[in-house]
Amino acid sequence: MNKRMQKRSSTSSWLLSLLIALVIVLLLLTMYQIDRQWLKLAEVQTTLAEQAKDIRELRTALASGTVRQQTGNASDNSGVSPAFQRAQAMTQQSDYAQGDWSVDAFGTNLKTLTPLVSSDAYASEVQNYVLESLVTRNPDTLEWEGLIAKSWQVSPDGLTITFQMRDDVTFSDGVPLTADDIVFSFNFIMTEAIQAPRQRAYLEKIKEVKANGKYEVVFIYKEPYFEAFDLAGTLSILPKHFYEPYLQKPQEFNESKGLLLGSGPYRLLDPKAWTPDKGNVELVRNERYWGDVQPSFNRVLWKIIQNDSARLTTYRNGEIDAYGARPNEYADLKNDAQIMGKSHNFEYMPPVAGYSYIGWNQERGGKPTRFADKRVRQAMSYLTDVPRIIQDIFLGYAEPAVSPFSNTSKQHDPSLQPWQFNLEKAQALLKEVGYEDRNGDGVLEDPQGKLFEFKLTYFEANEDTKRMVLLLKDLYARAGVKMEPFPQEWPVMLESLNKKEFDAITLGWTSGIETDIFQMFHSSQAKTDGDNSISYKSPALDKLIDQARATVDETQRMPLWQQAERIMVDDQPYTFLMRRQSLSFVDKRIQNLQMTKLGLNRGSLPVENYVPAAMQKY
User: Fold this and answer.
1) What's the confidence (pLDDT) of residue 46?
2) Gene Ontology terms, cellular component aspect (predicted)?
3) CB atoms within 10 A of CB 442
């Protein structure tokens, strides 16, 4: 009797526990749904408020008789301006549809999204969806096409560039974009209190930016500059009404995390509210977007997934739309039926592929380091076996970098070759400087007995970089050089870079069609927050950089760049490592993927990709 009672009691307890667990699950689901509803409600309220504002402004304009037909910019017979014609062609495909989300992943937390203050490629990728410029490049022809500019004229001496602007462009909050905003953008950057030393380094070539009425803007240069049109035409346009108050409180701007508002196809839901602790970055469609073709995706989302394996799993599960494969997994993934069944596959190296490097810090705490001696830097390059790194770590999916200039660029001197591993030459150079193993412990010492040891800073979440650094540690040890791998989080790493508080660092630079090396290697940029973070100074190189930048004629400019390249190859301010191929898998939901002269068109603007209605999931 007691046993039966115990059994019934046990069963009742189990049922009660199950019931309680079920209630808790339902409560959690309800709370989650309520949170989602509140977020949606907030979004709807914001949209309604914006629409109400637009209607009030339209009524005012109608009452005053100022509404007129918009003329648009230069276009073909379809009424679509050249910059939007590739996007327009996308909309003509039989299965084209608007809607769904574009979802990607960043391998690191972002420090800030605020333009000018941010300095990394991740923040720049987000900003490109929000901020716009006067012109853009055609990815097929590489020619300039008007975006906010309708037309332009360049004076015979190249010192004055005048742009006529569209008069139908508004920022995402509905305020019209005019020439005053472009004038403000230049003046804001040139304000010393604003933390924008990188941008000022280039814009110092400009004497003045002025408005001729509401929709014409003039850039006047102090002296000839080979990228004068590029510099003026691609200046990110900041809304004056939004950023001007920060001229009175520049420190608040410099320390901000998410002040981002523009005229682009997407916007932050709240242009002041994003902070790094939010993790993911999410942009919503700019319903006021002025463009001739509206963007297809409702949202653009970047998830923060720092672990490589976790990113692959997330892609495999369909939670992100693309995955950039590591070389050591690429072959297996191409034979993975599940991955290939859901993916487009691309393997390419565009002419604008960036390069990776090891930067040798030549000055720290106001004093020269061992790397200030060219012979030491040369020795380190002899010890850095780039072909082995490419083969062992990147499985051949890369090519050696000779310099900052691509091997296919007109800036490159084809007679120059990458440095080759040579232990004997490295040892001879180090001995010439005075480094010897004086106590038989296997580590070199200088004449004062100080060990040749240093820390190599690298991004901790990149597994391939970690493997490369460990390989380098062994290679350097063969010559008696003691290197300590020093992994860091991305924001901490950027801080160390800006303050020049490192021994050596491995990173990468993006490249352009023609690369201006002023910010990285000119001695004037060897300052706090300057991009010459290694404090490299060469009067001969400075002179050539200045001459090349001031030479508008390409046939005269390229020999100057090649002379500059020869100095860099000899000086080895960086040990130039490699340019890597992109090994990409993109979910088959994403349509209209094309290769262009700038690479894969995914993420290009105006937006050229979409998801057919039957394949949409968000």
Assistant:
1) 46
2) ATP-binding cassette (ABC) transporter complex; outer membrane-bounded periplasmic space
3) 10
Written as six digits, the tokens of 186 are: 């230049």
Residue 313 burial by Cβ neighbours in a 10 Å radius (0-12, 13-18, 19+): middle
The residue behind tokens 């629409």 is 51
Whether the CB-CB separation of 507 and 121 falls below 8 Å is answered with no
Cβ-Cβ contacts under 8 Å for 28 (sequence gap 6 or more): none
Closest by alpha carbon to 172, among 37, 89, 268, 275? 268
Alpha-carbon gap, residue 303 to 250, rounded angstroms: 30
DSSP 82-137: GGGHHHHHHHTSTT-----EEEEEESS--S---TTT--SHHHHHHHTTT---SEEE
The alpha helices in 112-225, defined as continuous H runs, are 121-127, 179-189, 197-203
Residue 373: what are its φ and ψ, rounded to 5°?
A: -85, 120
Going through 134-189 in order, the beta strands assigned E by DSSP cover 135-137, 144-146, 149-154, 160-165
Quickly count: other Cβ atoms within 10 Å of residue 24's Cβ: 10
Q: Which tokens in the block code for residue 47? A: 């949209």
pLDDT band at 350 (very low <50, low <70, confident <90, very high): confident
- Domains of the chain, start order: 91-107+265-349+583-618 (3.40.190.10), 131-253 (3.90.76.10), 355-580 (3.10.105.10)
Structure tokens given for 113:
């999204």
Name which of 238, 236, 233 is nearest 180 in CA terms. Answer: 238
C-alpha–C-alpha distance, residues 118 and 108, integer Å? 14
- Can you give the pLDDT at residue 24? 73
Beta strand 343-348 with 322-324 is unpaired
Strand partners, 585: 323, 345
Name the H helices within 161-238.
Answer: 179-189, 197-203, 228-233
What letter represents residue 45's amino acid?
Q
Contact 594, 601 (CB under 8 A): yes
Task: Check: CB of residue 259 under 8 Å from CB of residue 127.
Answer: no
Query: What percentage of the chain carries pLDDT values higher than 70?
Result: 88
Q: For residues 243 and 184, is the Cβ–Cβ distance under 8 A?
A: yes
Question: SS3 helix, strand, coil % of the chain, rounded to 5?
Answer: 40, 20, 45
Q: Count CB neighbours of 424 within 10 A.
A: 9
Evaluate if residue 152 carries a pLDDT over 80. Answer: yes
Whether the predicted pLDDT of 44 surpasses 70? no
Q: Which distant-in-sequence residues (6+ apart) come within 8 Å of 167 by Cβ?
A: 70, 71, 214, 215
- The DSSP letter of residue 350 is -
**Cis preceding linkage at 606, omega within 30:** yes
* pLDDT greater than 70 at residue 451: yes
Burial classification of residue 64, based on how many CB atoms lie within 10 Å of its CB (0-12 exposed, 13-18 middle, 19 or more buried): exposed
- With contact defined as beta carbons under 8 Å apart, do 113 and 127 qualify? yes
The partner residues of 163 in beta bridges, in order of sequence, read 152, 217
The three-state secondary structure class of 54 is: helix
pLDDT tens digits, 534-547: 999 999 999 999 99
User: Rounded to an integer, what distance in angstroms lies between the CA atom of residue 597 and that of residue 6?
Assistant: 77
